[in-house]
Amino acid sequence: MASFSKRLTVHEVTELLEQGDIDDILDDVTDIFMEPPVNVNNDITDEDSDDDGPIGDINHMPASLLNAHIVIHDPDTENTEVAKKHKVSDKKIRKKIKQNISSRPKNKITKQNQDAQQTVLWRQGDLETPNIFVDDQKPNLFYNTLQPYELFELFFDQQVLEMIVDYSNNYASNKNQSLQIDVNELKCFLGILLLSGYNELSRRRMYWEKSPDTHNDLVSGAMRRNRFEQIFSYIHFCDNSKLDEHDKFSKIRPLLSMLNSRFLIHTPHQQFHSIDESMVPYFGRHGCKQFIRGKPIRFGFKIWVGTLRLGYVVWISPYQGKSGDLQNTEFGLGASVIISYANNLLAHRIAPYHLVFDNFFTGLPLLEKLSEMGLYGTGTIRSNRTKKCPINVAAMKKKERGSYESYVSDSGILVCAWKDNSTVTIASNNVGVEPVTAAKRWSVSDKKSIRLPQPQLIHLYNQNMGGVDRMDQNVSQYRISIRGKKWYSCIVSYSIDLAVQNAWQLHKLHTEKPMDLLAFRRHIATYYLQKFNKAPNPGRKGGKPSSYIPRYDGVMHYLVPQEKQTRCAECHQKTTSRCNKCDVGVHLKCNIEYHTLK
């Protein structure tokens, strides 16, 4: 019996057997067997080649188990000459296998070459039946009668405030602290945060200082400084015992979900919605922190935002990478954001919404998906996503300003290139080139304003795309300036600013003579501070200080374990135990010395 000097994998031998070509290569093949694993005498014989895969899975077998031998039997002789005679080149077999595999039809298309495999037919021209929906802008008398604080409470309503109060009190009690905050005191706390947006100081304690240049009677008369810092330390928005380990924003997910539902309920009924990204400034450490070069806010959390044309926020979703809750991720990250937003709109009200987005999101599969959902979409598109559209971008750059060229795919998607200072490529499944409008531009050569022909979908995109940018502008004007140590405090402040901004948008839409954003925000802050203030108990005036110090009373000072290491109050080294009464870290060896009066 003779065998090959080089082993083949089971997959390679199987390919030969399925094609029936093994007899063409070896006329004397009579047996094929799998040899025992290399580590047959070792303690472990079923270990996986993939550490992350399931143990014992047939798809994760080690290399030692995936080798086969093709054996040639020769009953007359078993000498080396016969073995050499029947030995076949390993390269010849592998070459035959590659030829067989390459000749097979490829049924599986990977995500990378899926666009290249699909053939799209293009014709030059315009959409035959463009359909444009007219917005319903009738004012709602319900919003017309509401005061600014009542509009704000459409989003931070009683249910949201009670949720924050319950979670905060539970969190404080788990830390052996008595917070005992109620809804009215929470409104006073929110009033101080709103005031810090337009009356900013370098340090938050300066609002309570007696210095004439920083003291604020409205703040100091509404809540004591230590009480504010206590609430700010223990305010919470979730149950820590029920956190979702796959959600990186589970600490604030209940708040975001409740605000999203309220944003959507009170959204004015309009067709055009814009989707873009927004940045929340953050300079600490977190796995979801982003850096985007060229943005006004370069470091922080990226938030997917859907808005109306003037900036009313309908939906927000923090970006958290692959572990996010986006839908239809097979279309890519950008398209999954659009589809998730579209599903939220359709779940609230079925209507022919028109979504506008930039080239980060746009692709022909996304527009086709929106058409299947009964929605419209328009967005700038990158040249490598047009599926070989015949538009010659290089030739367009040489044409004069105002030139345009458009093609329509067999699925009803229009792609148009328009020459301005640079070439802009845009795609839509609803709006075409006609009617062509006139765009006012400045001519450097003529030194005067000129009129350029502009396709209709370019005009519609420019008119409806800036909703997220307008929202960012409104929020950045009077952003809450009091910052906390918790990583999610900046997103909570951002959510409060969004609620104020949305309330102001409703106020503008349904009021003949609306306030500006500053007056609207001041109205809410002053109302909360004057209505829900608690006259602080006056401190002790004069007299000798009390000789009673709880640290040295020798009563009920028990050491309890703590989750995180803190500094020992006596030796200042790290410890995992703390005194339940003094609420400071103390070693067991330092307990007696710390609680003894020296």
Automatic annotation (TrEMBL):
* Record domain PiggyBac transposable element-derived protein: where: 148-504
Q: Where are the transmembrane segments?
A: none
Q: Which terms in the Gene Ontology molecular function aspect does this entry carry?
A: sequence-specific DNA binding
InterPro entries given in the database record: PGBD, PiggyBac_TE-derived
The record's section on Pfam families has:
DDE_Tnp_1_7
What is the protein name given in its UniProt record?
A: PiggyBac transposable element-derived protein domain-containing protein
Tell me what organism the protein belongs to.
Answer: Macrosiphum euphorbiae
